[in-house]
């Protein structure tokens, strides 16, 4: 009799445990499927505006990747408006986005800030966000990046591979005073290095970028940090001919020239879109003003060093960075 009672208690505990386990699994499944299971009418509409084209290795392609990221992770429907290279096209895109009930409009680049500063007061129910730039109104936010630490590390790495003690940086837009990480990393590693800074004033003007590169090579520069997206492919191609080293940008660009690319400063721009949506769906919502993202937010990191570095050099670079 006592044994039968114990058996019932054991069965009861087993059944109770099964139901608790089943409930936990169901709750987790609901969380995982929350985004996918949301009805279209329940999802928030987000518009992403870019002045660039949506092709591989372009700045605009990162806008599209951002769209895919946030649609996979959040209950949103995102639409990309590309090739917005005039005031009228931007105004038309904003109007179209508002008509499609977009509550957040993201400008993929600082060039949208002047327009958003003017349009924000006319669309008070919409929150305007730009990647870089400025914000003047309460329904505006700028998400920008602090790449100092990662670029500092890249500067130290570059110092180990220059034979001429001449290193250059080809920037898409003027930002030398704002972004001093690479230059400071060079100087910290070796104060005798001569630093050359050149600006293309475009993200994809390959012709001018290569002209600037040839000027630097003629002056003895043998390592170049190139911060374009479209023009980096041409820079690395010429580097193969010239026999100089390059530090890539945006993604790990070693696949373009394993023997030429020392490392790359990886800028995970789509990660900033995740940060925007995390803030948007938080209790406090999107803040006003400027939000600065850095390597701790996953937007920057250094790619693995190329085969030209010895293990001893890699250790020395790490020691130099720590110091």
TrEMBL record:
It comes from the Bacteria. Pfam families: Bmp. The chain crosses the membrane at residues 9-27. The keyword Membrane applies. It comes from Priestia veravalensis. Its main location: membrane. Keywords: Cell membrane, Lipoprotein, Membrane, Signal, Transmembrane, Transmembrane helix. The keyword Signal applies. GO terms for cellular component: plasma membrane. InterPro entries: BMP_lipoprotein (IPR050957), Peripla_BP_I (IPR028082), PnrA-like (IPR003760). This is ABC transporter substrate-binding protein PnrA-like domain-containing protein. Residues 44-317 form the ABC transporter substrate-binding protein PnrA-like domain. Gene3D superfamilies: 3.40.50.2300. PANTHER family: ABC TRANSPORTER GUANOSINE-BINDING PROTEIN NUPN, TRANSCRIPTIONAL ACTIVATOR PROTEIN MED. It is found in: Cell membrane. Belongs to the BMP lipoprotein family. It is a lipid-anchor. Coiled coil: none annotated.
